[in-house]
Write a structure and sequence with these properties.
Layout lengths: L3 E5 L5 E8 H6 L10 H7 L8 H37 L13 E7 L5 H13 L7 E5 L7 H7 L13 H12 L4 E8 L4 E11 L3 E5 L25 E6 L2 H16 L18 H24 L8 E5 L5 E7 L2
Parallel strand pairs: 3-7, 3-8, 4-7, 8-9
Antiparallel strand pairs: 1-2, 2-10, 5-6, 9-10
Helix pairs in contact: 3-4, 7-8
Amino acid sequence: MQRTREARSAAGTATPYVELDRAAWARLAAQTPLPLSAGEVERLRGLADEIDLTEVREVYLPLTRLLNLYVRATGALHRATQTFLSADAHADGEDVTAARTPFVIGIAGSVAVGKSTVARLLRELLARWPDHPRVSLVTTDGFLLPNAELERRGLLQRKGFPESYDQRALLRFIVAVKSGVPVVTAPIYSHLKYDIVPGEHLEVRSPDILLVEGLNVLAPARTRADGRQGLAVSDFFDFSIYLDASPADVREWYVRRFLALRETAFRDEASYFRRYADLDHDAAVARASFLWDTINGPNLEQNIAPTRGRATLVLHKGSEHTVTRVRLRKV
């Protein structure tokens, strides 16, 4: 049976994507050796995330093979462009050569859909390819406004919504990376403290590939007060991935993760959420459900899900938290 097909809308009209079911996608890397062990996958996966070696082999190994092709093709385009620019410049004695900038991959999706695990996994898998051994990962959590500033603006209960980020700082960061600045810094966020860590930064030093993971990284540019269109972080992505699932499934995963955190990280005396550790099961479910229904669910519906169509590739997860189909934008 033909399992690879052109994705079609509900009305039957053609779309910009090619859709593959899991079996067809897995065959695309059938002969590629898996460079990770079960122990390494266990270390990389997040709490309540069901990812295992089979998922890695059938979903993420083909993805890294595809990404490797994109990185190599971009390198060839860079060399061709340099040759083109140099042809006329040599006659005038000019030097127009420029170093190749990092290949940037954006990873978007809802809270609890598994973005962090996928980002860490791709970092490890991509770094095993000899063409691009230097792979860095930055999460946009570091660009959230500090809690004190969010409180001042009345936005603490909208943490994760687009307006809760220092968008200018995030844009400056990605512009510097794509401009070839050799060392670029990003703020560090503590999930334990639920806040930015003052004075601490992550250094990004000219990687071959940079992964940028976050809720709203595919959001389009905002229109300025004067009517002009600004730049968006996604304007500087070479490839983008959206992790998709039904909102009902993501809600269930969120509640499940909250219950798991109640037994682990929330018990740390330094945790911002220490007050939730002593909730009984029913109270914890009720609290997690309230947080989803008033914050994370609306953010998914209003801001995150609408950006799905901007992705180069969409990984759709079924109710078991495993990828069931893949949609790849046509080239």
